[in-house]
C-alpha cells in the first residue's frame, strides 16, 4: 500500500513539485548565509522599507548628487555588515556558523535610524516585495532580530513562489512535467529561497502563460471572474519587472470565441494592455530620477547615463545592434555567451558559486525530455502562434538587455554589462507551447517518466545543496 502511494506521486507533477520545492527550498532558506543571493542586501533594504509602508525611496544629497535609499534602523545595517562579512565575490570566503548564535537574539532598535543607500532596488515598485515585506512586518511586531527578519522574508518569498508555480502546474493543460523541471531550476529555487524580487517575476509569468494555455484549450467563453483575474495578472507583471510588459502581448493567442464577439475580444486585449502600459509608465515616471542616477552609483566612474545612452541607441543603431551581438559572443576572457548560459541554472551566489557542469547538463536534459514528452499529448499550437510566441520572447529578451545597456553600461560601449542568465528564467515557460505536435515521440507511461524526471531533479537539487554547503561552510 505504501509502495503504491509513493508510486502515485510520480503520476502527479504538482505533488512532486511540492515535495521537492518545500524540502529543498526550506533547506536553502537557512543554508544560504544572509545576503549571499544576487543583490539580496538591496532587496532586504527595500523589503524592510516597504514593510514600514514607505512606498517611495528617500534620498540625501552628497556632493551635489542624490543618493537614493531609505532611513532604516542602525541595528539592521550593523548586523548586515557583520553577517555579510567578506564572502560575496570571494570564493575562498566562508561563513562562520557561530554568527547565527551571536545575532539570532540581537535586538532591533526601530527608533535609532540612519540613511542607507540602495538605488538598485529603489527603482522597483512595491509589488515584487509584498511577500518579503509581509514576513518582515510580522517579525517586527515581535521585535525579532534582523537575522530572523531575513529568514522570515525568505520564507514568505519562498511560500509565494511555491504557491504561484503550484497553481501554474495545476492549471496548465500540457507539459506539466516540463513546468516542474523549469521551476526546479537550481538557480530559480535559490532565488525563491532568498529575498530576491526575481521570484515574483518568475511566478507571475508562469501563472499568466498557464492561464492563457488553459483558456485556449478549453475553447469556451471566459467568465467575468476569469477576465478580471487575467486583467489583474496582466497589470501586475510589468510592476514586477517593466520590460516584462512585452510578455503581456501573449493575450492575443486567446481565441476570439473565448469572448462574446470580436469587439469584446479586442476590448479586452487592447484594454488590458493599455491599462498595464499606463501603470508601467506612471511608476517609471515616478522613479525617473532614480533610474538616471542608478548607473553611476552601481558603476561609479564608468560614464553611465541613461539619457545619453538612449540618445546613442537612436543615433547609432548599428553600433547598438553590434553590442547586442558582441556581448554574447566576444567578451574579454571566457565567452560571455557561456557565462550567460551557465548563469541560467548553474551560477549561484554573487556569481561566485558554480554547481558542476554535469549537473547543469542533467537539468537541461530533464527539461528537454519533459518538453519532448509532451508531443502527442494535449494542446496543439499552430505554426503562426509559435512564431508569435518566439517573437514576443525575443522582443522581451532584447528589452531586458537594452535596459542593462541604458542603465548599467558606459555610453557607447560595445559590450553590455551585467547580463546574466537568471534574467531569462521567467521566459523559459515560453518553451512549453513551442513543443507541441500530433505525434508522440516518447512512448512511456507518465508514471515511468515522472519517476525518472523526479529522480534526476532530486539529484540536481542534492548536488546543489552540497555545492552551497561546501562553498560557504567547508
Assembly annotation: single chain
Helix content: 55-70%
- Tell me, rounded to a whole number, the average pLDDT: 91
The count of β-strands is: 5
Low-confidence stretches: none
Number of helices: 20
Kindly report the spatial arrangement of strands forming the biggest sheet: 1-2-3
Q: How much of the polypeptide forms β-strand, as a percent range?
A: under 5%
Shape: globular
Number of domains: 1
Structural class of the secondary elements? mainly alpha
Biggest sheet features: 3 strands, antiparallel
The termini sit apart by 41 Å
Query: Over all CA atoms, what is the radius of gyration?
Result: 23 Å
Instruction: Please write the string of helix (H) and strand (E) elements.
Output: HHHEEHHEHHHHHHHHHHHHEEHHH
Notes on the structure:
The structure is a single chain. The protein has 474 residues and is mostly helical. The protein has one domain. Helices cover 61% and strands 5% of the residues. It has 20 helices and five strands. The protein has helices at 2-9, 13-31, 40-51, 74-84, 98-103, 119-122, 130-141, 146-171, 176-183, 186-192, 198-218, 224-240, 262-286, 288-298, 306-315, 317-329, 336-345, 357-373, 383-408, 446-472; strands at residues 58-62, 65-73, 113-117, 347-348, 353-354. The strands form two sheets. A three-stranded antiparallel beta sheet has the order 1-2-3. It has a two-stranded antiparallel ribbon with strand order 4-5. α3 crosses α7 and α8 packs antiparallel against α9.
